[in-house]
Amino acid sequence: MPLTDLPLDQLRAYRAETSEPEDFDAFWEKTLAAAREAAEGSAAEYRPAPGPRLHTVDVLDVRFPGWGGQPVAAWLLLPRGAEGPLPAVVSYIGYGGGRGLPLEHLVHSAAGRAHLVVDSRGQGHDTPDPDPVPGTQYVGGFMTRGIDDPAHHYYRRLMTDCVRAVDAVRGHPAVDPDRVVVAGASQGGGLALAVAALAGDHVAGALVDVPFLCHHRRGSELAAFGPYPELADYLGRHKRVDPERVFRVLDYFDGVHFARRATAPALFSVALMDPVCPPSTVYAAYNAYAGEKDIRVWHYADHAGGGADQTAAQLDWLTARGHTPDGHPPKEG
């Protein structure tokens, strides 16, 4: 794969020119308040998960109230026999995927953390997305679903689910509510970034890996594969649609705007040969991020990023910040 974007020195200085909606904060305050009101009196439900028995991990099949109080599926993996309250990781899934099987998500519980794996409505098998605006024109995927109005856009619903996942896991007796970290790659990274802003001090850290949903306009112009080309396809087919109106709607869901509001410590990653999430879109969010931050740069990687090496870096980063079962970072020497 060739390099897909600007040279690294220019990426480090890159600042996105994005138009932030004047009512951005009010929009999200109203959205989350409505979701919590709709779920009033409803609590997350936890049941033992069927499937192959794991001897060191307990797996719970979860349903928690998300957008409109609608049930959202998740797995909660808990290290068996660990004494709580435990640090927790809430992870979100890449585009087109769902929570999958618990066997796919064993790293964090093996490291002694509680791990909530959140299904993506309409993408995973276990959480439907009753579309509130049937008939809205869109092209494949989810990027233009509800594109006529931010109130109807798909990512308003999904991002609300993701914030409500943090609300749910903080209430579980095995979890330390002050040590909840959000995480994800690609779409999951963009969702983790959004939640880091929207959940405020309920989030103690963020692992933002090759994030999607950042600087949509530039993504639509540069990305060769993945979800961003859905925007170019839509605008190419619907030539009477004003592109500025489309990007004004997407501004409510842009990671650059969330980054300016997120203050939890964060570890990002970027791949310089990424044809799905162009590096400048990642740096647009990273350079805007308001909290303590670091980034791992994978020079010769595509959208897979650092793979297991990035996971190892994330585990070290969490441990150094006391996101361990005993709450203490390792002693020097």
From TrEMBL:
This is Acetylxylan esterase. SUPFAM superfamilies: alpha/beta-Hydrolases (SSF53474). InterPro entries: AB_hydrolase_fold, AXE1_dom, CE7. Residues 1-319 form the Acetyl xylan esterase domain. It comes from Streptomyces zingiberis. Pfam families: AXE1 (PF05448). The lineage of its organism: Bacteria, Bacillati, Actinomycetota, Actinomycetes, Kitasatosporales. PANTHER family: CEPHALOSPORIN-C DEACETYLASE (PTHR40111).
